[in-house]
Amino acid sequence: MRARFALPAAVAAVSLALAACAAPEEKPKAVAGDPSAAAAVTINDSPQQNRIVPAKVDAIAALLPDDIRAGGKLTIGVGAAGAGFPPLAFTATDNTTLIGSEPDIAYAVAGVLGLQPVVENTSWENLFVGLDSGKYAVGASNITVTEARKQKYDFATYRLDNLGFEVRKGSGWKIASPKDVAGKKVAVGSGTNQEKILVEWSDQDKRDGLAPVDIKYYQTNQAVYLALGSGQIDAYLGPNPGVAYHVAVSGQTEVAGTYSGAGAALQGKIALTTKKDDGLVKALAAALNHLIETGDYAKILARWNLTNEATPTSEINPPGLPINGK
Fold it and tell me: Is 57 helix (H, G, I), strand (E, B) or coil?
């Protein structure tokens, strides 16, 4: 999914709406991203990342195509040019170093494969141009598996594609189904996938004899968080990574529930992406599964407050979002 996240504007907004005594330039606070989490999360946005880079696993490296193994490098495109999309891929406080969960996964996979990672930040559009031309061997940029994309690319999954409900911290509110938001004021971005899902939930509430969701729209992230902090809205529904990031840096909100970005019929999945039939996807999936088995994968997600998007295994080309009309 290419989704609009709560980016740096939302980080600044928290000082206005939720923690008036805090300055935007303060270091991130250590807070729990999941209400049930026992440990706190501190987002490190400095250039000194101390990434997890495992040792080479010969049996997995042997799965690489001959040309990539011989070249010794893994070229990885990340489509985060411009503002980026924290916590997935964005620039550190030096305004140069690319950081986030996507680069972390890329570096860790390259380590397992015994390859030197060459990570390049580009635009979303040029990422796919680069995959098609062979400039990039891998795309690592919050790419959702879809049936249309599977016609051109192979996928090795590494994260769930979820939406997140953000509420004020300590509310005790759990959101898992339409009835949980019946009659509540919930903000959502206009024209987004999450708006479509929220409208469906509201319609279901009406069919069940419950009050519809009072859907609210705001022009900026700052306005959303001002409304949430002042109690004008009860919740915000957005892409879970952006929600989780804001939870981590604000310390004043929490994730009340998540829901598949693909809707009720399918769990959306995020995947490393390669040109179809280039022979690389099996090695990528094996490397990801090794990271899952060793616990390094869980540590990477925890660094960025994304534990609630963990997948138990990496799958190759699972069912994707359907082609429209089919």
Answer: coil
Helix, strand, coil abundance in the chain, percent, nearest 5:
35, 20, 45
Q: Do domains 8-20+27-41+162-260 and 58-161+266-309 have the same CATH topology?
A: yes
Q: How much is the pTM?
A: 0.86
Residue with tokens 């399918």: 266
At which residue do the structure tokens 């990477």 appear?
300
Contact 308, 241 (CB under 8 A): no
How far apart CA 179 and CA 267 sit, in angstroms, is 20
In terms of CATH, what superfamily is 58-161+266-309? Periplasmic binding protein-like II (3.40.190.10)
Q: Which residue has tokens 């740096």?
A: 8
25: Cβ contacts below 8 Å, ≥ 6 apart: none
Q: How far apart are CA 216 and CA 233, in angstroms?
A: 8
Q: At what angle do helices 8-17 and 240-250 cross, to 10 degrees?
A: 40
The residue type of 84 is G
Give the model confidence (pLDDT) of 254-278 as tens digits. Answer: 999 999 999 999 999 999 999 999 9
Contact 299, 307 (CB under 8 A): no
> Which residue reads 């907004």 in tokens?
13
Domain ranges of the chain: 8-20+27-41+162-260, 58-161+266-309
Q: In the 8-state DSSP scheme, what is residue 239? A: E
Domain over 8-20+27-41+162-260 is classified CATH 3.40.50.2000 = no
Is the model's pLDDT at 78 over the cut of 70?
A: yes
> pLDDT tens digits for 217-249?
999 989 999 999 999 999 999 999 999 999 999
* Measured distance CA(184)–CA(295) in Å, rounded: 39
Torsion angles phi and psi, residue 232, rounded to 5: -70, -25
